Structures are given as C-alpha cells and as structure tokens.
Amino acid sequence: MRLRGATSIARLRRRFFVAAGVLLLLALTSGPATAQTEFHFQFGELLNPFSAQEEESFVLTLQQATQWKYGDSFFFVDYLDDKGSDGFNERDFYGEWYPTASLGKLTGKTVGGGPLADVGFIAGVNAAGDAKVVKYLPGLRLAWKAAGFIFLNTDLMLYLDGSSGVGAGGAPRTDDSYCFNVNWLYLFLAGEQSFQITGHAEYIGSVTNEFGQTYGGSTLAQPQFRWDAGKAFGGDAGKLFAGIKYQYWSNKLGTEEDESAVQLLVAWQL
Q: Where are the chain's structural domains?
C-alpha cells in the first residue's frame, strides 16, 4: 500500500497533527499519570548497511511507559556510537513516541470481547538525528488478552514521511507507506528466578524515494530476554535486569542488507 497525491497526503498530515493535539490535550487534562522509566545499556556488533561492515557499538536508551486516564504513552530515545569513523552511528540520536487513546477508557464501556481487550487510537512520531528523518504514524491499536502477558498489542499505522530530504542535508525523502507492529511484555518464573521476554516486531511496506529508487518492505524485530538480576542477588524485584537483545532487520535502512545481531543488555528501572 502506497499513498500518493500531494493533496491527500497533506490532508492526512493535517489530520495527524489534529489527532496528536487532541491526545496531548487529553493527557494534560486527565489528572495524575503513572509512569515507568528505564535506562538501558546495549553492546554488540551492529551492521552499517551502507558499507556492509559490522562495528562494535553501544546504545544508551531512555524509555518511559505512562498510563493516564484516557490511554497510555510510550517513548524512547537512543544514543548510538560505534568504533567506526564512517559517519554512521557516530554519536547519533534516534527516538520514537506513541501516545495512544483507549476507546474503552474514553467511553467508559467495555470494548471488544473474547481475546480482544481494547481498541486504541495512535499518533506516533519517529525522528532520526544525523539522517534528519521524521515519520508520522497515525493508526489503530488492538490490545489483546493473553495468559502471562502484561500487554500484547497489534498496531496498524500509516507511515507518513515528514523529512526535509537531501536538500536539507538529510536522507532522501520517500513517499508514504504503512507499518504493522506487534509489541509485548511476557513474564515467567523458572524456579525462584524471574524472567521477562519483551520487545516488538514490525513490518514497513515498500517506498520510493525522491530519486525514484524503490526500497523493498522491511522487517525489524527486537526481542529482549531479561533476567531479574536485582531480585536474584537479594535486592528489590523489577529494578535491575541483565540479558540479551536480538535484532533482526531485513533491508536495513532502505538497503538490501539484512542484519542479525545479538547485544548484551543491562536495564535499570526506576
């Protein structure tokens, strides 16, 4: 699915900003929120898809999940650096934000039934530093009930390009597409040890850039396997985690390169 036509795209972008403004207004006027903040350190060899070389890299992440009266919000910001000097992942920043309004909370009624727990409206934003890329992701969320899962969501969103393009010193602009995302948090015990499997997997449809080059669809999966190390060593449960993060990325960043990488992970939850 590709979205074409300057008029229709401009209309979609205007509607996105209206929706994002409404979600922000609801959040600001809905009273106290409950927030969960984490800091992550990740280390491993990540692929530069433009040189096809792998470099030792570390990523520092600040992320926060917030519950508010009418929905929730999730954002993260990555700081990335590697040992290379090729202009890729050198002290770069990347972030995403997904405010969501819950139809069930807005109406005060049960939405869905059976395994379907709720329906939500999303107004997401993705932004990259060096590449000067901005994407807008309005869409719908289906929240599911599943044993052992703290949450399990499927999100279907438009993928609207708001970048300035090569003329502004960034990556080429593209036409618009769509994104399908699955995100989850699953808890389980093994003896006296506590573990989590969390993360997301997404598919972004193919796009054509401002030079007429077509990029095939891209899959990005980033599951984390986390052990509650703080609890294991006699501290508070749910505060300090150690584990691994696996990253699979097909057609990474609009190339034909595929990445399969394992990173060491340490996460501290406030």
A: 6-28+42-269
Matching residue, tokens 């590449």: 131
Identify whether the C-beta of residue 244 lies closer than 8 Å to the C-beta of residue 264. yes
pLDDT at 90: 86
Based on its alpha-carbon atoms, the radius of gyration of the chain, rounded to whole angstroms, reads 19
Beta strand spans in the chain (E): 34-48, 53-68, 71-82, 92-102, 116-128, 133-144, 149-161, 177-190, 193-204, 207-208, 214-215, 218-221, 224-228, 240-249, 259-269
Q: Mean pLDDT by 10-residue block, N- to C-terminus, for the chain (270 residues)?
A: 54 64 61 85 95 94 92 94 83 94 91 93 93 94 96 97 92 95 97 97 96 94 98 95 98 94 97
- CA angle, 98 then 102 then 103, to 5°: 140
**What is the C-alpha to C-alpha distance for residues 182 and 168, in angstroms, rounded to an integer?**
33
Architecture label for domain 6-28+42-269: Beta Barrel (2.40)
